[in-house]
Each structure stands twice: as C-alpha cells, then as structure tokens.
C-alpha cells in the first residue's frame, strides 16, 4: 500500500496545499495574504477531489509549523488540528525555513542554503542549512542539518553570524528576507534565488523520513513555532 500524505501551509502570504498519492505529487499554490482562512479549505477539497481521494484515505497530515506571520501560523495550526481530529490522523510538523531549503535542492540541486523570511519590525526569521543524505531501512533520504539554528533577529545579526562561519562551496539564499533589507541585499554572502516563500509541495519530501521514523504527533500535540515570544503591534488609543 503506497503512502498518502496531505500537506498544507499558510505561514506566509503564500497559501498552498500538496498531495502525495500513488507515488505522484500534485499541488496548488496561491498568494492569499489576507484570505488564508477563506482559501485553504476549498484548496484542500479541490486537490483531494482532483485525485479522487477522501480525507479518511490520507495516512498523515503535514503542515508548516512556522516560523512565519503570527496569524498565518495560527491559521495553519488550527486547520491542521481540526482536520486531524476529525479524521483521526497523525500530524507531521515541518519547518518553513527548511521547506525552502528543500525547494533549493529539488529545483537546483543546491545542498547549502541560507534561509531568511521577512519578519517585519526590522527582523528576519533566519537559519542556515546543509543537506545530509541518510540511509535507513526505508531507503536514502535527504535531511537538513542546521548550521545556524532557527531564530528571529535583525539583518545585521544575520551578517554577523554568517561572517563567523566557514562557508565553503556554493550557497544559495532563499526567502523574502534578503531583498527586504538593504543591508542584506548589498552583501554577497551567497547566490540569490527566486525561491521567496515556502510551498507545501516541498513539505512532502521532508515528511517522508519523519513518517518512516515515526516522528509524528497527534492533533492535540501540534504546536506552532512563532520564534517571537511576544507579538508586537502598534498601540492604538486606549490599548495597553
């Protein structure tokens, strides 16, 4: 019996779903910055119906657990929990920064990636990854090792950390963070790419080793990753 995985992501202005069924991948991607809650469920219905699959035939749900916008990550977490509870499905959370690294590998065969998503407020969500091929009883899989751990920080802190590590070989910069801040755009610390936002399509590859290694959780254990401990917004009159 082949594995069936349904992936979804609403963590950024992108809204995407992907399905692995009978060994084939299909996906839908939209830019829906303020309409994730309206679009994600119809997109899920559409991709399932296109393949003639019901939610109860899915083996596991995969979702982008962050980092990303507070609202987007919260929406993705809530939708995932609701679907998983309703269909009694396990959940595989994946890093949105690692998802873009996986896209770099699948599109360009790049195995060293600097990932940065614009976090607003003069900060980025940032991590540095290196691909490692791991053999198991289920075959060979690609896993991403963090050379610089996921964090939210100022662009200047990104440059400081990158200057302290020995970056041999070719590196690809992915994500919206590089173009969002001039201090990052001007520094040539890696080749710039057209991979700007995470897509559920590349979550499927990350989920495979997690599934075979039983690295999944049940719906009530699903937790978002915001990286920020507090969400800062502009104070309005009368708001504390």
UniProtKB/TrEMBL annotation:
Main localization, broad class: cytoplasm
Domain Gcp-like: 30-162
Superkingdom of this protein's organism: Bacteria
Listed GO biological process terms: tRNA threonylcarbamoyladenosine modification
GO CC terms of this entry: cytosol
Swiss-Prot/TrEMBL keywords: Cytoplasm, tRNA processing
Family annotation (InterPro entries): ATPase_NBD, Gcp-like_dom, T6A_TsaB
Cell compartments where the protein resides: Cytoplasm
Short name of any one Pfam family annotated for the protein: TsaD
Signal peptide (from-to): none
Family: Belongs to the KAE1 / TsaD family. TsaB subfamily.
Stated name of the protein: tRNA threonylcarbamoyladenosine biosynthesis protein TsaB
Organism name: Pasteurella bettyae CCUG 2042
Taxonomic placement: Bacteria, Pseudomonadati, Pseudomonadota, Gammaproteobacteria, Pasteurellales
Gene: yeaZ
